[in-house]
Specification:
The chain has about 190 residues and is mostly helical. The protein has two helices and no strands. About 90% of the residues lie in helices and about 0% in strands. Helix 1 packs antiparallel against helix 2.
C-alpha cells in the first residue's frame, strides 16, 4: 500500500506541509527581531524629524513674541490717539446756546494741532506695525505648513503601526492554523 501512487503523493504532500510548518516556525521565531529593528528605525527617524522641526518652531515663537509686543505698543499708541480724538470731538458737541452766556473757553488752535500731531505719530506707528506683520507673514505661513507636515507624519506613523500589528496577528494566525492543519493530517494518517 505504501508504494501505490496515491500513497506516494500523499506522503510527499505531508512532507511539504512539514517543510512549510518548519519555515513558518522559523519566520515566527525571527519576526520579533525584525519588528524590533523596524520599530527602532522608524522611531529614530521620527525623532530626528521632530528635533529638526522643534528648532524652527522655537525661532518662529521668538519672532512671533516680538511681533506681538510691537503690536501691544502700537495698540497703546492707538488708544492714546483715540482718547485725543475723543477729546477733540467732545469740543464739537456743544450744548445748545444758552441765554446770554459766553463760551467757557475760547477756541485754541494749539489743542487741535497737538491732536493732529498725535494722530500722525499713531499713523506712522501703525505703518511700522503693518510692515512688521508683512515681514512675519511668510514665517507664520511656514510654521503652519510645518505643523501640517508634522500632523501628516504622525498619522503615517500610526498607520504603519496598525499595519505592522495586523501583519503580526496574521502571521500568528497562519502559524496556529498551519500547526492545527498539520496535526489534523497527522492524526488522519495514524
Amino acid at each position: 500500500m505504501a508504494v501505490t501512487p496515491e500513497s506516494v503523493v500523499l506522503l510527499q504532500g505531508v512532507g511539504r506541509v512539514s517543510v512549510a510548518a518548519q519555515t513558518t516556525s522559523e519566520l515566527a521565531a525571527d519576526l520579533p527581531r525584525l519588528l524590533a529593528e523596524e520599530r527602532a528605525a522608524v522611531i529614530e527617524q521620527l525623532t530626528g524629524v521632530l528635533d529638526e522641526q522643534q528648532g524652527q518652531l522655537q525661532a518662529l515663537a521668538v519672532e512671533l513674541r516680538s511681533t506681538l509686543e510691537a503690536g501691544g505698543t502700537t495698540s497703546d499708541s492707538v488708544r492714546e490717539t483715540i482718547a485725543a480724538l475723543d477729546a477733540l470731538m467732545a469740543r464739537f458737541d456743544r450744548p445748545a446756546a444758552s441765554t446770554g452766556r459766553a463760551p467757557a473757553r475760547p477756541f485754541d488752535v494749539t489743542e487741535y494741532t497737538e491732536a493732529l500731531r498725535q494722530l500722525g505719530e499713531a499713523a506712522q506707528q501703525l505703518q511700522v506695525l503693518l510692515a512688521q506683520a508683512d515681514g512675519k507673514a511668510p514665517a507664520l505661513s511656514q510654521a503652519s505648513e510645518d505643523r501640517a507636515r508634522s500632523s501628516a507624519l504622525s498619522s503615517l506613523v500610526d498607520h504603519v503601526y496598525r499595519l505592522l500589528l495586523q501583519l503580526i496577528l496574521a502571521a500568528v494566525a497562519a502559524v496556529v492554523l498551519g500547526a492545527l492543519g498539520y496535526r489534523a493530517i497527522v492524526r488522519r494518517w495514524q
